[in-house]
Amino acid sequence: MIKELRHIADISALLQGEREVFVVCDRNVEWVAWEAGTFVGAVSIDTSESLKTMGTVMEICKWLLENNATRDALLLAVGGGITTDLAGFAAAIYKRGIRYANVPTTLLAQVDAAIGGKTGVNFLEYKNMLGAFRMPEFTAICPDVLKTLPARQIKAGLAEMLKTFIIADASAYAQAVSSLKKAVFADGNLILKAAAIKESIVTMDPYERGPRIKLNLGHTFAHAIEHKALEAGDDIRHGEAVAIGIIMAAEMAEREGIAEKGLAARLKADFQSLGLPTDCPYTGLEDSMAKDKKAAGGKIRFVLPERIGSVVVK
């Protein structure tokens, strides 16, 4: 359930009546956590793809146990997608499951990662290979907190926002590209529109057995890119990999006669105008893609755009 916050201090109102709140927050946004008001305990964590592991999840579970968190506890995740994934996974397995809620503080998390109940960690340098579906009590979105983010983090989130519109809303895609060319900061209405689209798809298909698969546009390529980056120690953000993956998916769709001619070139020009990467720095992605959790029946599954606003699964 998405909750819009006009001011970050409004978090406390969402927690009224909760007697046992535990907060896990990204160390960079501790100030947001304090707006939650009264809580039993709070822990700050460092976040990176290399730290998105079972080890970190176990540390969160250990902290909960040491602080006597019961099955009635609510775990509040404050931070970006790595934080919400880690805290959500810890909530899914601690004492066989406790409730959790998200306060995403990055654009990528507000439009994608913190919505829909996917939790998980990387394993053997493969992206989100271990995890669980665990729906949050709510995801509270406050666009104002994004104003403190570096431009690179904002741009990484733009890729996920544009992905959502490419899947389901051609008009919103055109509006987003037009407005974002004028300013890096994403309009709050666009953020909420992208979040609402994802929430509606997830509601129809919470366990990714049908329509939800379409939300993986660009991700088959992106996860392979991220695997290569982790192996090489390169700094590539998830949203940046997704941007590249969307272009690769559009190029594949054109080669296969699925997409309208010129789609890949249009998307590439749009992405480049917003400062997003579009060229893959690696070769030999096939092995990584074959091991991706989205592969099924021994085959690699791709989400391919037919046109802006419509995609198919192949």
- CATH top level assignment of the largest domain: Mainly Alpha
Unreliably modeled segments:
none
- The count of β-strands is 10
Arithmetic mean pLDDT: 93
Whole-number tally of structural domains: 2
Q: Per CATH, what is the topology of the largest domain?
A: Dehydroquinate synthase-like, alpha domain
CATH architecture of the largest domain: Up-down Bundle
Helix content: 40-55%
Largest sheet, spatial ordering of strands: 3-2-4-5
CATH superfamily of the largest domain: Dehydroquinate synthase-like - alpha domain
In short:
By secondary structure, this protein is of the alpha/beta class. It contains twelve helices and ten strands. It folds into two domains: 2-147, Rossmann fold; 150-313, Up-down Bundle (Dehydroquinate synthase-like, alpha domain).
What is the element layout, followed by pairings?
Elements: E1 2-4, H1 11-14, E2 21-26, H2 30-33, E3 41-45, H3 54-66, E4 74-79, H4 81-93, E5 99-104, H5 107-113, E6 118-123, E7 126-133, E8 139-141, H6 151-168, H7 170-180, H8 188-204, H9 219-232, H10 238-255, H11 263-273, H12 286-290, E9 303-307, E10 310-313
Parallel strand pairs: 1-8, 2-3, 2-4, 4-5
Antiparallel strand pairs: 6-7, 9-10
Helix pairs in contact: 3-4, 4-5, 5-6, 5-8, 6-7, 6-8, 6-10, 9-10, 10-11
